[in-house]
Amino acid sequence: MLLYLLAAPIGNISDISIRALEILESCKEILCEDTRVTKKLINLLYSRGYIKKIDFNYTSLHSHNEISRIYALPKDYFLNDVIYMSDAGTPCISDPGVKLIQFMQQNKLPYTILPGANSAISAMALSGFEGGFRFLEFIPHKLQDRIKFINFALDSTLNTIFFESTHRILDTMELLNKFSPQRRIFLVKEMTKLHEKFYFGSVNEVYSELKNKNINGEWVVIVSSGKIKQKSLNINDINELSLPPKIKAKLYSKLTDKSIQDCYNEIINKTNERK
């Protein structure tokens, strides 16, 4: 009996390992993040002749049900070999599965991994950056949190890897350009897929290029380690951002400890001066 963490392809189905295919042939039970996504992958593997069977028992285990589902499994569930796989990439790395591993450890149950695709590690290999790195998963949604996140990345002596969405990639690049336009950066869109594309150079160069490109797709971003001192964001930088005055005032207040009202008045005065 053994639990296998199976790294699923992140774009190209042929990236699945031979060992993973062999284990799939020998297992009956599959725990997975989304049964629909996993069934589609299994059917593709079967249709291309990579595996010879598709009669698995599928059980969903995702971020919203991970704990309750683990403890609802039959007591004899792990007496047989079981596979756990997320929708794409390596389980537990910015994906569900950590609680499952903790359960296995607490109950002294055996488990291992079937290594394979990982977009963060792959992007680092493609970047051309030397030295160590850290992976920060997804950049936050809220503007104030995004700025703290970016400052954290720019201050690091390590290369910083994170994910970004189609809808916010230009906003993130705009902020990076305000703080550190000459910092070296590497971006990859749609890794291992048909429309895979790399962008690298200074933040300013890449930001200018992306403004005229199709940015649809999943993005991995790597900010190089802190070798160039970035400038601090001032009221003129904030005023140039494409944001409503109230949001600008909240942002400036966070950076200066001034009241939001004082910041709002200062921003309005600066705007009026330009007219």
Give your account of this protein's structure:
The protein is an alpha/beta fold and 275 residues long. It folds into three domains: 3-117, Cobalt-precorrin-4 Transmethylase, domain 1 (3-Layer(aba) Sandwich); 120-223, 2-Layer Sandwich (Methyltransferase, Cobalt-precorrin-4 Transmethylase, Domain 2), CATH 3.30.950.10; 235-274. Helix content is 41%, strand content 18%. The chain has eleven helices and ten strands. The strands form two sheets. It has a five-stranded parallel beta sheet with strand order 3-2-4-1-5, covered by helices on one side. Strands 6-7-10-8-9 form a five-stranded mixed beta sheet, with helices on both faces. It is elongated, with a radius of gyration of 23 Å. The N and C termini lie far apart (73 Å). The relative contact order is 0.12.
Salient structural properties:
single chain; 275 residues; alpha/beta; Cobalt-precorrin-4 Transmethylase, domain 1; Methyltransferase, Cobalt-precorrin-4 Transmethylase, Domain 2; 3 domains; 5-stranded parallel beta sheet; 5-stranded mixed beta sheet; 11 helices; 18% strand
Instruction: Give the count of helical stretches.
Output: 11
CATH architecture of the largest domain: 3-Layer(aba) Sandwich
SSE run: EHEHEHEHEHEHEHEEHEHHH
The CATH topology of the largest domain, please?
Cobalt-precorrin-4 Transmethylase, domain 1
Structural class by helix and strand composition: alpha/beta
CATH fourth-tier homologous superfamily of the largest domain: Tetrapyrrole methylase, N-terminal domain
Low-confidence stretches: none
For the sheet with most strands, the description reads: 5 strands, parallel
Termini Cα gap: 73 Å
Relative helix content: 40-55%
Shape: elongated
Major beta sheet, strand line-up: 3-2-4-1-5
Total number of distinct structural domains: 3
**What is the CATH class name of the largest domain?**
Alpha Beta
Q: Roughly how many Å is the radius of gyration? A: 23 Å
What do the pLDDT scores average to?
A: 91
Count every beta strand, where a strand is a DSSP E run of 2 or more residues.
10
Our estimate of the beta-strand percent is 15-25%
